[in-house]
Amino acid sequence: MAQWLLMSDLAISSALNLDGGSSSGFCLNTPAYRERIDAFVPLPLVLLVVPR
């Protein structure tokens, strides 16, 4: 999937393919939208994406 995203027309320079297993959670906080999905298994790891 990461390779497919890099080759798309989305102007992506880097991509990660995360496994989406039971330890995966999701949090989105933008002015237009807020969403949080907790992981089933807590892990002390965070991948944070912020604008430059």
Q: What is the compact description of this entry?
A:
Helix content is 10%, strand content 15%. With 52 residues, the chain is mainly β.
Can you give the mean pLDDT?
81
* Largest pleated sheet: 2 strands, antiparallel
The chain-level structural class is mainly beta
**CA-based shape:** globular
- How much of the residues is beta strand, in percent? 15-25%
Helix % is under 10%
The counted number of beta strands is 2
Topology as a string of helices (H) and strands (E): HEE
Radius of gyration in whole Å, from Cα? Answer: 13 Å
- Give the termini distance in whole angstroms: 24 Å
The largest beta-sheet arranges its strands as 1-2
Count, helices: 1
What ranges have pLDDT less than 50 throughout 5 or more consecutive residues? none
